[in-house]
Amino acid sequence: MIYRRRIQFYETDAQGIVHHSNYFRIFEESRGEFLRSVGIPYSKLREEGYEVVLLEAHCIFKQPIFYDQEVKVEVRLESLDKYFFWFSYNVFVEDSLKAVGKTKHCFVKNGKLVSIPQKLKSLLACQLDKET
Amino acid sequence: MIYRRRIQFYETDAQGIVHHSNYFRIFEESRGEFLRSVGIPYSKLREEGYEVVLLEAHCIFKQPIFYDQEVKVEVRLESLDKYFFWFSYNVFVEDSLKAVGKTKHCFVKNGKLVSIPQKLKSLLACQLDKET
Amino acid sequence: MIYRRRIQFYETDAQGIVHHSNYFRIFEESRGEFLRSVGIPYSKLREEGYEVVLLEAHCIFKQPIFYDQEVKVEVRLESLDKYFFWFSYNVFVEDSLKAVGKTKHCFVKNGKLVSIPQKLKSLLACQLDKET
Amino acid sequence: MIYRRRIQFYETDAQGIVHHSNYFRIFEESRGEFLRSVGIPYSKLREEGYEVVLLEAHCIFKQPIFYDQEVKVEVRLESLDKYFFWFSYNVFVEDSLKAVGKTKHCFVKNGKLVSIPQKLKSLLACQLDKET
What we know:
Four copies of one chain form a homotetramer.
Chain A: E1 2-6, H1 20-38, H2 42-47, E2 50-61, E3 70-80, E4 84-93, E5 96-109, E6 112-114, H3 118-131
Antiparallel strand pairs in A: 1-3, 2-5, 3-4, 4-5, 5-6
């Protein structure tokens, strides 16, 4: 899936570029749109008592991003097993790759790790197929 | 009460100064230390089922604040009635006044406005006296 | 002008609602889109050596806003004189007014207060007329 | 080096825990104190025209951290060559390890990658020895 939005002034720092911590926020936004596009918005999962918990976050910053630039995030579901799933992110400004990231997640219900809900797993597995 | 801490890089923006939204975060920090100093840390109020809700926030920015500067916040309880209370904030770097703010709050329990808990009201009223 | 976008998870706090500091960031976003819609994106003003400096920020929070809700911001230029201008913001979720804010600004060039650039003043004054 | 500070309310999210993006901000704070403790505050490096640029950031989140908890960050310089250096971070609450992170950096002057300034390299190398 492709997620696009413009960089805000409050996301920059005194180096004049997007602060690195904000890339992880942009990843979260793109993940949210990915889930919505698959028909399972995170807000709905939360109503059903699930939390998606972030277990790992990684990012390689290749080139700075500046205020008012439009970023394009290619977000993909990379893998999925009984409990865990990974997303990957390629962040572009126009055709230039600015950053590459990945995050690992699981589902939690009532404070405990649970296997990925079956309905969701089918929908997600379908995305995995689509992308290969 | 006086609250001090150093400005972090992630609090700056591309103008090279502290982003205005972060002043309200520094106010929150100083408020937290104020409540702790009075013997009622906010985390403890939350365990008892109370939330402090913010109703208004105001700030006048007089001069910019820069990375690594140490800010000194004079935080005062300005007023207090059955339901509502106001804090005021003077933000200094060394002896230079950089910003002046105020915030209005109330207490909420089980999602409803409640009068300020009596124990807390006494402790707070005591601060009002001290400051006049 | 109307600015819309969805609330992100990272904008919420442990009260389960949008943290108050983030309203000022949403105001900034809406201001950016306002300037762009008038034909003077802030990034272009910065290339010409201007900074828009924020002098005051005020917000009254009427009701909480939650994750994944779509906010609609009515942003208006309220006043404009030789040096200073005010924006106002009404923040809605569907038809419910959640917050009311205003901010005061000026232009700075080479670190000094300057009168509002004439070209910009004409474009902005035009907006003032439109809204009355 | 050990860096300690308390978690603020604005750092939490609607899961009631510290938002993952903020760990990278806490890492930045601890890095800042590390450099200061070695006698080379980052603000001073910037006055000399250097920027420390972040190239990679990684974090494994082991257990959530909550509002008002005091985090203790063990920050270490892990490696250092002509151009690049890595920091590692162990984040504790009391004796419980909550997260493990690492970041890769380089120096930039006038927009170009430069070798690590010699004076700084000596001071940092000294830290490497101390820690092994």
